[in-house]
Amino acid sequence: MSPRARVIGALLATAAALGLGVLAAWPIYRTPWLLVVAVAALVLSAGASLVRERWRLGFPVFAAILLGLFALSVVPVAVPDALRSPSLGGLGAGLVDGLAAVALGWKQLLTLDLPVGTYQTVLVPAYVVWFATAVLVVVLAMRGRSSRRSALIPTLAAIPMLAPVAFGTVFGASAVSAPLHLGPLTIAAPREVSIWIAAAALAAVWVAWTAGAERRAALKLGRAGDPRARRGGAARGLLGAAIVAVALIAGVALAPLLDAEARDVPRDHAQPEIVVRDTPSPLAAYRTAKRDSGFDAPLFTVASSGEMPERLQLAVLDAYDGIDFHVSADEASLFKRFPAGERAERPAEIEVQVKDGYADIWVPIAGLASPPRFTGPRAAALADAFYLNRGTETGIAVPRGDEVEPGLIAGDGFTAQMETAAAGDATGDAAQSLGEPRSNASQIDLEQAPQLASWLETQQTTDFATLLDRLRARGYLSHSLTDGEGERMWLERLSEQHGTTFETSAGGHSLTRIEALFEQLNTQQSAAGEDATEQQLIAAIGDDEQFAAAAALVARALGHDSRVVLGVRLAGGAGGGIAGDADQVPGVPACESECTGEHLAAWVEVRGDNGEWVAFDVTPQVDQAPKRIEEGEQLPEFSTTPEERDAREVDPPLGLGEQSDGESEEGDALVDAWLWPILRAVGLVTAAILLLLLPLLFLPVVKRLRARRRSRQAVPELRALSAWEEMVDRARDAGVQVPERASRLEIAEAIGSAPAVWAAEQVDRAVFSERGIEPGDADMLWLAVQADSDERRQTQTRRQRLRAAYSLRSYVLRAGGRRVKPSDSNASAEFAGAEKSEAQ
Amino acid sequence: MSGDTTRSRLFRTGTRGTSTRGTGTWSATRSGATRTRGLDTTQRRRIAQRRRWRRARERLVGAGRAAGQAVTPLGWFVIAFTALSLVLGVTVQWIEAWFVAVVGAVLLVVALPFLIGSRAYRVGIELDRRSVVAGGETEVRLQIENRAARPALPAVAELPIGRALREITIPFIGPHASKMLVQQLPTPHRGVIPVGPLTIARRDPLALMRREVTWPERHLLYVHPQTAVLPSNTAGLVRDLEGAASRRLTDSDLAFHAVREYAPGDEMRHVHWKSTAKTGTLMVRQYEESQTARVALIFDARPEEYVNDDEFELAVSVAASISVHAVREGRERFIASAWAPGRVRPSIDGLEELPSRDPQQMLNSWSELQRAPEGLPFESLAMSLAHSRPLSIVALVTGSTPDAARLRRAAISFTPDVQVLAVRCALHAEPKAQRIDNLTLFTVGALGDLPQLMIRRGL
Q1: In this structure, are strands A613-617 and B294-299 parallel, antiparallel, or unpaired?
Q2: Is pLDDT above 90 for A161?
């Protein structure tokens, strides 16, 4: 294979790899600009590699050229938005952003919602990957011409060829393409699978082409020399194709079986750096907007180029824990960047200006069709900090730079394309578009809410719309506990229009509070009897907060999915929606253009088996005040509901005896409390000291154990022999040069003590005599061992004794001594030993 | 294997004698001397176990190596990609990874049965001739015998011939039958062609795996350069009558010249005692050197002196003709070029002698000769040659690039009594001969010109 052929092959392979990369990354970006990026990566990097080959550039120059090309091309290729405003500052900012995105763009890409288009610098990661792929493939392919050893280097180019497809898969969504039905075959995720197979085939062809080049050339030469060219390759090719086909069919059949449908991609783990869960439930703070101070405070103004959307959502709260409605962890994790919207049915340009009364992270929006363009002094920071949850259509703005006020504050504003068509407008009927419950079983534990359960039982219907209508009709609006100073403005406003009178109502929407609401209804209904009029049944006092929570719980009890939405209704809205127009909700009016605390409303969204969320207003009626009907007993004027939502119910104190028991237990606990840490500390310190001492104690203990094992031999001869070995080992440890392979008497002379000489004779007798040795003599030998070492110890200094205790000579010499040549070492060791003993 | 079994049997009989005495620990602890001879049962078992383990490990390693050799680079790629996909499929549950893993595993499993089976062939490779002249043709005969009791189905063998790999279809061969396969082997160019070893490979259709069986018979086929027969005793090779005394003086020869005073280093046997006795000082004999035709040939192997490959081959042919002629005539010769075959450090003077014991060896070495891009130019070769030995005739063969001036400069290195013949090989040039002092300059356009020029100049 000539170098030219290899370069052309490498360029083709790179082009194919990048083409597959574009296909794999298409769901991420979904913009034709990807092709520009791929072509630029191919042309620039391949050109740089060819220039390097042509002029034999060194690595530093080549790296500099690559970096320069990348830096020059990153803005026009990968940050095309920066070119829209062709000012020098914009270009500079684009360049800085683009280069920073080489390191940071990966996370940005993962946290953005798909498809990302050409938003900001999201194309930079793809450009980096493709650029590097093209460089590596071309450089590796042109390598390794010289020696046989490096002939396999071009083969390695197959690895970077897989990178573009890997990029698409790693940064792609966890959702795969819809299965493809081909007659009896069903191919799961056909798009991803075919891209992978194509990438694998490309790399395999490259490996086969480069690794087999030499052999192919040799075969070609051989065929040229032999006129009778061999045929029969066709059959082999057919067989190969058949094998590949079988393998592919096996893959189609087996892969879905093996796949547990738990596809895991990094995108699923990427959390935006915000925790919506940390913010308090906005529903719990609902009544602050209804105080006099907030009632007329302007929240924001809304202006539209065309129609107004029916309502603007602030927060959607989907989780209820018995205390309040809040954003669940799942939904909170779905807040993503929002680079591009979907087409709206009836889009209108809505402009929102935040006013003094509003300071929160929630952005008032309705079905966004385009990313909001923020205005005001903090526009850029807000644009970077805007996240959208597409499932609930709620947006948040959490500018990091502003520590004082996280979220929107007065002076901020934005314009955005929003959907003004009401959801489910076509069906017209709320009940119809809701459909049947998603499950027959209740989604909440009705035993925890007996009043709700009994109310549902007495209604004798399971249609949510009917139940909600009854709930609203039998409710009565009240925003406050008292009609005192500071919280009477709402009452004045309503009594002017509707003649509303004051009824007290506690705040909060804990389960206890909702139960109290249903208890009011149940008591009234049982008091009113069978044939009561609708007006007689009015009993539940509360406002949007309680009724939204109650309605959501009712929906869940019926088996629907439900969630509570906080927002405002707009007067100029499309109207005629399912939840009715503004006139149907006299309690909380819709706002015209300036929304104040008065207009802040809550409603529920319920989902049946149709799969669509349908909004229902929950505000109770304001026209007819409840009439108390006494049934034998007067109901307490004020409910005993604690005002504090978080107040804990404490059981009344029990008897005295139990109390004293409790105290003694407490005393025990107190003892435990101070004893346990002390014990723990003592234990830990002991363990630490033991661990530190372990290396110090190890050798003496092991030696002692060895001596013990030896002295406990059962056979007297063995015991005598062990005694001798122990004596020799101790002598070795003490530094005596014991001659190798010498007789015992010679060794005893080397040791040089009287007990040793005696012991040598005794042991020799024990080993070699026919009668062996008496047990008593063996024990005497052990005494001799002790006597010998005592004798030695007397002559030693403390330091020498210590050294003997930690000496490894008795082990080392035993293990390694066999290798010493007997003749030489004998003489020298003996000599040295004699000298040593003399010295002692 | 057999070696192992006999060794272990010997070992066992050796230990049987001692094992009758006492218990194992007893004999082991008794004294140091018996420790090496006596082995108890546990030790023996341990040794046997160790040996078994070593054998198993060797077998395992061998099998692993064989398996590694059986996998082609494509196979390695498929294995690696399949393993990676499997890991991805298990850990992150990517369905495409599962798909690729299944496809790869199926490919690998299907590839395995293709490797089963062996060929009980006995293969003999015969070359028609050991050496041929360039431009000729020869035959390679493969004698293939089926040693098995079963017939052998057709197979495709691969025979490396030089750099080419020839695929040879081995036909159906009955049991214990043999077939002769003849391969024509054209030899257009000078060189050495290695033939063999014959390989039969089993591989799957996708070439993921490849099991090779090789018959290690190898041959070398020398393709000699074309040579021209030079007229005998012309060639200028015998300038002087052989054996006649020359004017050069030497310390040791046949023809006595004079007596001179002893100088340190003279040999004692050359002392002329009579003169010494007469003069009173030590006198030694001096001789006249006898004439011998000492021929040297320098072949310029540097590619930059030649216009193209054909000219190089022409020069090789010319040089081979002259040198073979010298060998045939039995001259004392020194044939050298700058081409150092496979040597890490070439000789200091840049001259590499070509072996020239007989014409066959001479031609073989011309077959092996290749270009020497890093060799010294012929001027310096001539200089070192001139200083290395006494010579009577020097032939210098080079290409058309060096002009007459350079050749003259090279000729000046030699003493005037050395006859220098320089041959410029310029393809298709008009043959001509020039004589400048002791330099005879031939320009040869084709190999046939050389004998003509030799005769004409009467050298």
Answers
A1: unpaired
A2: yes
Asked whether A57 and A51 are in contact (CB, 8 A), the reply is yes
Contact B157, B170 (CB under 8 A): yes
Tens of pLDDT, residue by residue over B335-350, are 888 887 766 566 777 7
**Pairing state of beta strands B393-398 and B419-425?**
parallel
How many beta-carbon pairs below 8 A join chains A and B?
148
- DSSP at A569: E
Q: What is the model's pLDDT at position A164?
A: 94
Tell me whether B32 touches chain A (CB under 8 Å). yes
Q: Exposed/middle/buried for B95, CB within 10 Å: 0-12, 13-18, 19+?
A: buried
Secondary structure, 3-state, A483-513: CCCCCCHHHHHHHHHHCCCCCCCCCCCCHHH
CA–CA dist B129, A21 (Å, integer):
59
Residue holding tokens 């390598």?
A: A143
With an 8 Å Cβ cutoff, is B455 touching chain A?
Answer: no
B207 to chain A: which residues are within 8 Å by CB?
208, 212
B-chain residues near A212 (CB < 8 A): 72-74, 207
Percentage, residues of chain A above pLDDT 90 = 10
A184 confidence band (pLDDT: 50, 70, 90): confident
CA A237 – CA A233 distance, rounded (Å) = 6
Return d(Cα A782, Cα A765) in angstroms, integer.
Answer: 15
Q: What is the dihedral of CA A10, A15, A18, A19, to 10 degrees?
A: -140
Residue A39 — φ and ψ, nearest 5°?
A: -65, -40
Supply the Cα-derived Rg of chain A in whole angstroms.
Answer: 44
Question: Helix, strand, coil % (nearest 5) of chain B?
Answer: 35, 30, 35
Instruction: Look up tokens 């004293």; give the residue.
Output: A660
- pTM tops 0.90, yes or no: no
- The answer to whether A222 and B161 are in contact (CB under 8 A) is yes
Q: What is the phi-psi region of residue B265: left when phi exceeds 0, alpha when psi lies from -120 to 50, beta otherwise?
A: left
Q: How far is A291 from A483, CA to CA, in rounded Å? A: 11
Is the pLDDT at B53 greater than 90? The verdict is yes
pLDDT digits (tens, 9 = 90+) for A413-439: 888 888 877 654 434 455 566 777 877
Per-residue CA distances from B270 to B116, B286, B288, B291 (Å): 80, 8, 14, 21
Question: What is the SS3 assignment for A408?
Answer: strand
Residue A39 has pLDDT above 60, yes or no: yes
Residue in A475, A599, A598, A489 with CA at minimum distance from that of residue A543: A475
CA distance A202 to chain B (A): 12
- Greatest CA span in chain A, whole angstroms? 131
Contact B99 A155 (CB under 8 A): no
Helix (H) or strand (E) run with residue A294 in it: helix A292-295
A5 Cα distance to chain centroid: 48
Look at residues A423, A525, A400, A512 and name the one whose alpha carbon lies nearest to residue A473: A525
Q: Give the pLDDT confidence of A515-528 residue by residue, as tens digits.
A: 988 888 888 888 87
- Relative to beta strand B332-337, strand B352-353 is antiparallel
- Asked whether A110 and A171 are in contact (CB, 8 A), the reply is yes
Which band of pLDDT confidence, cut at 50, 70 and 90, is reported for residue A133? very high
- Give the span between the Cα atoms of A509 and B408, in whole angstroms: 117
Tokens of A396: 């948040």
Lowest-pLDDT choice from A87-91, A615-619, B45-49 = A87-91
**Cis ω on the peptide bond leading into residue A589 (within 30° of 0)?**
no
> CA-to-CA distance for B283 and A147, rounded, in angstroms?
65
What residues pair up with A794 in beta bridges, in sequence order? Answer: none
Please report residues of B whose CB lies closer than 8 A to that of A766: none
ipTM of the complex: 0.70
Neighbours of A827 (CB within 10 A): 11
